[in-house]
Amino acid sequence: MTDSVLYELKGRVALLTLNRPDKLNALNYEMIDRLMVLLDGIEDNDHVQAVIITGAGDKAFSAGGDIHEFSQSIKLGPEIAVKEFVRRGQSMTGRLEAFRKPIIAAVNGIAFGGGCEITEAVHIAIASDQSVFAKPEINIGIPPTFGGTQRLPRLAGRKRALELLLTGDSFSVEHAYQMGLVNEIVPHEDLLASAYSMAERIIRHSPLAVSRIITAVTRGINSTITEGLQIESEQFARMAVTEDVHEGLSAWIDRRVPEYSGH
Asked: CB of 34 within 8 A of CB of 2?
């Protein structure tokens, strides 16, 4: 492992920086594996309650998968390519999507291919006004492989997603906002401050309740409404026996700020 992903802790928020600026933070296998290891550590660290992911440098969040590297996997045949490239990338975006602590993408520039797929997968995305997005995989003869054919249509709608997937054309941050790919557009110089502000607005609440909401939405979004309501009920039942519920109710009745223990 190297410093292909940087880790910095500020209060209760972990900042993960994709750190290959000379390669526009292209996602090579080492970077994906490093990110997964860091997420494992963050999940087990009760002090850390939120995560921000951004890219190193001023040009790119991530330009996508490392083409030079995964092309070598493709040369070894489809089974190897699926194992080394597709499953690795899908495991990463799946981990981001289902992570039990909120993950915020601070998109600071180019977000193409896998960089766009990270943006699709995380819980919240804040983008610099200098950001630009694309689904360019079709330009090299492949479909998106880190979940882009599935998550973008769910976010943007089938026809709008297909236009981007089938043309490979880049699209503006304003278009990304209109489609629901990003939550907010901010001046470039305010990006990280805005991401930290969003994190603080979330983590003032019970970390258990935050986790239950993420789980209910992630599991329920692809279910029928009946199944989704059952998931919601299950997550409520898990919260109802916690100290945080009693603290939240007592604080509301007493008109004071709650002090959550995370238990």
From this structure: yes
pLDDT at 153: 96
Provide the 10 A C-beta neighbour count for residue 87. Answer: 13
Residue pair 182/125 in contact by the 8 Å Cβ criterion? yes
CA torsion sign, 175 to 180 to 181 to 184? positive
Closest CA to 129 of 73, 191, 71: 191
Cα of 231 vs its chain's centroid, Å? 22
CA separation for the pair 115, 104 (Å, rounded): 13
pTM comes to 0.95
89 three-state secondary structure: helix
pLDDT at 2: 60
Residue 222's pLDDT is 87
Catalytic residues, which ones? 117, 137
Q: How does the average pLDDT of the chain come out, rounded?
A: 96
Asked if residue 103 lies in contact with residue 123, where contact means CB atoms within 8 angstroms, the answer is: yes
Which pair of structure tokens corresponds to residue 224? 């029928």
Of 91, 85, 93, 135, nearest to 110 (Cα)? 135
